[in-house]
Automatic annotation (TrEMBL):
Protein name (database record): SCP domain-containing protein
Domain SCP: 68-184
Gene3D superfamilies attached to this UniProt entry: CAP
Signal peptide: 1-27
Entry-linked Pfam families: CAP
InterPro entries from the UniProt entry: CAP_dom, CAP_sf
Keyword set, alphabetical order: Signal
């Protein structure tokens, strides 16, 4: 479901080196999950890339099985299947790996960053109006059927799996401490940027949104902070960030119109670093 635009606010198993979830990284790598991923947007993405590149032992079969079970549940509900999206797999695996490495469970990481942060940091083209997520931690000897049964035992998780507008999913599974850490992301792809948005935004960066619903017309853009406060914006699809401090990150929102209503499509995060 599209988010109505508020003009007042404009808004896989991974091999871990040692018991206890300690993550082993080479001396040359920027991956060090003892204190989580980097704090700035650029360092966050760089460290996610490094950590995932160093680990190729994902539970591909379990991830694929969970995707199949998700689509079976959607089919039983009379809904269209969701497609695996690489960037959402990346976001899900990054969070699963962090939970496994630091032995915690939650939708947010220990720094307070949630699934929407990860999606908007790691997917540089997605425009979405709605997102959901499922997180499950179980014994490492659980199979995919048992994991899926645990997911659907929660009412909110079941609603996510059968959300009518969701089109894409990403799944990540990591193991440590005798447990498996399972993360599933689901979202509605309402459109995409023609070209990936750079992490570091140069003033005057052009946007070329491709909106899937032909009834929607592009109405402009804005950059907002985490609270939804507008930092910059305009109607011409050329992003400037004069009000964004050098050490800040902001969220790109593409505004679309249908009849007299304006809606927000959430896009990638950007930094001035």
């Amino acid at each position: 479901m599209l988010q109505k635009y508020d003009t007042l606010r404009t808004a896989s198993l991974l091999a871990l080196a040692a018991a206890g979830g300690t993550f082993a990284a080479s001396a040359e790598s920027v991956c060090d999950l003892s204190d989580g991923y980097g704090t700035s947007l650029v360092s966050y993405v760089q460290e996610v890339d490094a950590c995932l590149a160093e680990n190729d032992a994902f539970a591909d079969e379990m991830e694929a099985s969970l995707a199949d079970l998700t689509n079976a549940a959607r089919s039983n509900a009379g809904l269209e299947p969701v497609a695996r999206r690489a960037s959402l797999d990346k976001a899900a695996r990054a969070h699963a790996l962090d939970m496994a490495a630091r032995n915690y469970a939650g939708h947010n990481d220990l720094e307070g960053r949630g699934h929407v942060y990860r999606m908007r940091a790691l997917d540089r083209q997605l425009l979405t109006g709605s997102t959901g997520s499922n997180v499950v931690v179980m014994s490492a000897d659980a199979d995919s059927g048992e994991v899926f049964d645990m997911i659907i035992s929660d009412a909110t998780n079941r609603e996510n799996l059968t959300h009518e507008t969701f089109t894409d999913t990403g799944i990540g599974v990591a193991e440590a401490n005798g447990k498996i850490y399972v993360v599933q992301m689901l979202t509605t792809v309402d459109g995409e940027l023609e070209q990936p948005l750079p992490l570091s935004l140069a003033s005057g960066t052009s946007l070329d949104p491709r909106i899937h619903d032909k009834m929607l017309r592009t109405a402009g853009w804005n950059l907002s902070d985490e609270s939804g406060q507008r930092l910059a914006g305009g109607k011409i699809m050329r992003v400037t960030a004069d009000n964004l401090a050098a050490d800040e990150h902001a969220y790109l929102n593409v505004l679309v119109e249908m009849n007299a209503d304006t809606y927000v499509l959430q896009g990638p995060m950007v930094s001035m670093q």
